Amino acid sequence: MQQELAIVILNWNGKNLLEQFLPSVSRNSPKGSVYIIDNASTDDSIVFVEKNYPEISVIPLEENLGYAGGYQKGLKEINAKFYCLLNSDIEVSLNWVSPILNLFKNDNLIAAIQPKILDFKNREYFEYAGAGGGLMDSLGYPYCRGRIFETIEKDKGQYNDNTAIFWASGACLFIRSKDYWAVGGLDIDYFAHQEEIDLCWRLQNSGKKIYYCGESTVYHVGGASLSYENPRKVFLNFRNSLISILKNEPSPTVIFKIFSRLLLDGVAGLKFLYEGKVKSLLAILKAHFSFYKMIPSSINKRKHQTKKKIKPQTTSVIWDYYILKKKTV
Fold it and tell me: What is the pLDDT of residues 261-278, one digit of tens each?
C-alpha cells in the first residue's frame, strides 16, 4: 500500500546529529513516516535509532554511495506518493509539512518543493544551502533568494511567499515520487553536491514546476558533512556544475556557456591562489579534468532527455554582485 509521505534521512556516521535532530522530526511529522537510509556507517548511529526510535525504518547500504547514490538506491525500497529528502542536520518546525502538501495538491505540475531554510546557529538569518529558494543565472551559476555568494540576508519576511524557483535545495527536498522516477532520479555520477540542481533542471525540461513554500520553515546547520571551503567540496561543486550545464542547457547556448564557465573557473582559481588556498586551486583543476573525462557520458544522458529545454534567467549574478554591487535578488 502506498503511503502519502516518506521523510527520508540519509545517514553516514551521524549519531550525534541524529541524537540532536531526530526528536524534532519525530515530534513534528505526524503526516509522514520517517526512514533512515544508512550509507554503511561505522559508528553506532543505527543502533541508536533502533533502540530509541523503533517506529523508524532503517534501510542499510553495504557501502557509502554518497548523497545521490545513497538516495537513489534507498528510495527504491520506499513506496510513497511524496518523498522528503531531509538532511540529518535539520531541525523542523511545528507545521512544516502541511503547507507543502497543500501546494502539491493544488497544482499537479509542481514536482518538487523546498521550505524556507534558516540558519540553525543564527536563526534570524537564511542558511547558505537553499535559503529562500534556488535560482540560476545566465552562465549557470546557482544562487538563492536570501543568499548571493557570501552575502546572507536576515529573514524579515521578505520571502514568505509561495513561488516558482529554478531549483530546490537537497537539504530539504519534497518531491513527487512519480516525477522523481520519471526523469531517472538523482544522477549517481555526481556523488554529492549540486545533484538536486540537475534533478530540478531535468524536471523542468520535462514540463514540471519547482516551487518554494515560505509558509514552511526548517533550520539547517550546514556543512555537517564537508565544510564549505573543503577542497573535496570545491571539486564536486565545480565539476558537477559543468556537468549540469552540459546535460541540460539548450543547444544554441550550451557550448558558449561551458567555455565561459571554464574561463571564469580559472579566475576563481587565481583568486584562491591569491588567498593562499592552493588546495582549492588544485581542486578546480582536478574538477576540470574529471569533467573532460565525463563529457561522453554526459552527452549520452543529454540525448536521452525530454526535448523541451528550460533556460535560466538572462542576467549574470557575477556582474550584478561584483560590478553593480547588487547584493540581494
Answer: 999 999 999 999 999 999
